[in-house]
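Summary for the steering committee. The consortium agreed at its last meeting that each partner would contribute one worked example illustrating the joint modelling workflow. Our contribution is presented below. We chose a case with several input lines so that the handling of multiple components could be demonstrated. No manual editing was applied between input and output; the record is shown as generated.
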Amino acid sequence: MYSFQKDVILNTNIEQLMVSSDKVAHVQVDNPLEHALLVLTKSGYSAVPVLNHSYRLKGLISTTMILETVLGIQSFEMEKLSQLKVEDVMNSDLPILKVNHDFMRALGLTINHPFVCIEDDDGLFKGILTRRSIIKLFTKSLNKAIQP
Ligand code: 2BA
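What follows is the complete predicted structure of the assembly.
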């Protein structure tokens, strides 16, 4: 009989799984769209967090959001890349976890979001929790459980 370590998973501290802010590609609210497109393209991520100058979370921006904005009726309106700012386009309706939130809350959010931003008690951006880190945790635990 396999024994899956349910308690180990449920008691996981989300800070342990977090990609810390210094390793997270991000943009700022007042960056022009062309800068955001550069960050997204060069990092290879499809969406990244948006912060203000006090390092607080303000939204998310993705390549798709930018392309939809510059796509006109007949052609791409590339001048919008320098005219518009990240805050004009970003999605500000984002789920946020606190460092002390429990693992089940985090797990539920990653059903619909590939990553969830984490902030500390003062509202400062701490990092992100990705689906990858959660799948890694389950894989490790299941591997332990099925090993003879
Ligand atoms: P996506 O960019 O759509 O990436 C989907 C998955 O593809 C990632 O899943 C990861 O497994 C892989 N991937 C994409 N670009 C990668 C890269 N440059 N290096 C390594 N692996 C890459 P997750 O790791 O679960 O990430 C979920 C989402 O979290 C990503 O979606 C991205 O929007 C965001 N993300 C992850 N790490 C990030 C970071 N360091 N900075 C900013 N955003 C990040």
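The chain has a mean pLDDT of 94. Residues 131-146 form the longest helix (16 residues).
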